[in-house]
Structure of 3'-5' exonuclease domain-containing protein:
Amino acid sequence: MATAPSLVPYSWLNLSPNATLHYIRDPDQANPHLATLSGPVGFDLEWKPTFTKNTPENPVAVVQLANRNTILLIQISAMQEFPEKLRDFLESPDFVKAGVAIQSDVIKLYKDWGVSTRNCVDLSLLARCVDNARWKGKYNNPLGLARLIEVYENLALPKDKTSRSNWEGDLTSRQIEYAANDAHSGFVIYERLIAMANAMENAPKPVYYTFDAVRGRLCEPTGMHWNCYNPDYDPGPPPPPKPPKPPTARDLRRAALRARVAASTTTSATVSGSAPNYLTFSGTTEPTIHSTPLISGSQQYFPSRKSADVHSSSSYLSTPRRHPWSHYLPPPATGETSASNHGAHPYPGNFPTRSGLFLAETIQPSVNAPARAFPQYIPTDNAQVGPDAGHASSP
């Protein structure tokens, strides 16, 4: 299968061989060139990027203006004051300043330098107005300048990490070429699109793609608020839904963790012993009395001994979910009195815990209990726990 030929890189010198480029760092040098500059011009801004989170943006460093004969790269960050002629040119409604998605740029220019910009043209909106059959989708979705150059000029506009370089120092030859191409290509695309608009029978209204930025506010020439809207634009059918993204490594780790947590509440551990009844809690709303030594779950909470009367309702505290357990306990064994046999219980005494509860893993056996008699459960009657009572698995 034959591959499409690669496009020729864009170069302002190839399209305008008679144009002159001026890199200016002094306002006294900028003013004479700006006094003779006429529109329309391609317009762009550059500033030094920030690579630290929550760090304010650096101010605008370079203003780029280009027409068929002149390209000006004015590095205002190297100047003590904003060039007066540059301010006059930007604030003049007589000259078109064309660029792609420059709304945020002109607002930033005002915030950084207090300069308004009038008669701005968004090339993305202009392209959607005059070539609606080609461009579908949301009206205010920006179209990249490189894409417009590829479609209408059949050239490749280089876009690389140069845009994220330091624009406050002395510009390198690579930066100068990059900035000149950006501004000049904006002028070339404007010339192409406005010619298409003039050839249309029903040309779109300029307000559909033109705006002013006065004191940081986007507005129409009349002063009314400008809305990015074109009632004649056809966005076409809605795009198909995006396919689901494959799970990332983080998603897989979280899913595995959720599975382990879910499994920990359903794991059953079989424990052998002579105690007839066991009080267990397996993550449900109520504890359960088991007549067989089968305990659900890997962590069970048990009531804390609170007074000498081990079988009274006041002798047991609630679960963390505030469900009392006293009425789930079996009655005293035959011949047992709650006061006289309290000391005979294999785990007598008070166990200080949060919420009056403790994990069986924290229980230390009494002096009379076998050395291995601290499984993850407590018998609910006066039966002794044998040394082979088993051990519940850890969560």
About this structure: The longest helix spans residues 173-198. Residues 8-219 form a domain with the Nucleotidyltransferase; domain 5 fold (CATH 3.30.420.10). The CA atoms of residues 121 and 206 lie 9 Å apart.
